[in-house]
Amino acid sequence: MTELIAGNLKRVRDAIESAAESSGRSADDVTLVGVTKYVDASVARQLYDAGCRDLGESRPQVLWDKAEVLAELDIRWHMIGHLQRNKVPRTVGACDLVHSVDSMRLIKAINAEGEKTDRVTNVLLEANVSGEQAKHGFSQDELKTAMSAIFELPHVKPCGLMCMAGLESDERETRNQFASLRKLREEIASAAPAGRRDGFRELSMGMSGDFEMAIEEGATIVRLGSILFEGIR
Ligand SMILES: *Cc1c(COP(=O)(O)O)cnc(C)c1O
């Protein structure tokens, strides 16, 4: 199984590299987050051993548990799914980046927790670019309006944006959604206070089915699960 995972990881890295090169970018500018929600901690560890240091989970409790089991490894944990406010304290203590900040109430809770524990939490704002009702996230207009208040919060560091393409979207629509996230980031960064602008650079977009397109459209972080564990589940 270790070899299978290492082989999958190699293929994925090659695909990331070609997608980056074909759009005039460097693969070094794209961080691969291995999404381990389909596997247990021992398999997650094999992905780490194969060289993937950034791991992501979509459920807070599962992230806490895996992070605890694998605590001796220098894993950067990414919270990529919906986060309830009552789970903020344990989650911000366990992870390096929260991708899925989808409301003002949530980011204020993260900021308040940081104030209590003297911590600055790295966050991405999740934008609903597909317009699908079931999706979490700020609408693009909401986010543009909310950003000035968000940039004032001293205990969060907004590092950029995150999105998920619509489930119903075809290839052209998906590409447009990624492109609109990129434009939104540019707009927000150019309106940001000077001290916040340079830090606001990440675009977390792209999953197993669409990461190459996401990279062509500017993704700096891709979140990949199924493609890394092909042949294992
Ligand atoms: C599960 C999940 C992923 C990974 O999806 P795959 O299609 O398996 O690569 C990425 N992002 C989020 C938010 C997820 O929940």
Written description of the protein model:
The model has no long low-confidence stretch (mean pLDDT 96). Helix content is 45%, strand content 16%. By secondary structure, it is α/β, with parallel strands linked by helices. Strands 7-6-5-4-3-2-1-8 form an eight-stranded parallel β-sheet. The radius of gyration is 17 Å and the shape is globular. It starts with a helix and ends in a 9-residue tail after the last strand. The protein binds pyridoxal-5'-phosphate.
Q: What's the count of strands? A: 8
**What ligand molecules are bound, each kind once?**
pyridoxal-5'-phosphate
Radius of gyration from the alpha-carbon trace, in angstroms: 17 Å
Proportion of residues in β-strands: 15-25%
The overall pLDDT, averaged over residues, is 96
Can you count the helices? Answer: 9
Alpha-beta content class: alpha/beta
Please mark out the parts with pLDDT under 50 across 5 or more consecutive residues, or reply none: none
End-to-end distance: 11 Å
The percent range for helix content is 40-55%
Q: How is the main sheet built?
A: 8 strands, parallel
| Shape assignment | globular
Strand and helix order: HEHEHEHEHEHEHHEHE
> Within the largest sheet, what's the order of strands?
7-6-5-4-3-2-1-8
Keywords:
binds pyridoxal-5'-phosphate; 233 residues; globular; alpha/beta; 45% helix; eight-stranded parallel β-sheet
Compact description:
With 233 residues, this protein is α/β, with parallel strands linked by helices. Helix content is 45%, strand content 16%. It is built from nine helices and eight strands.
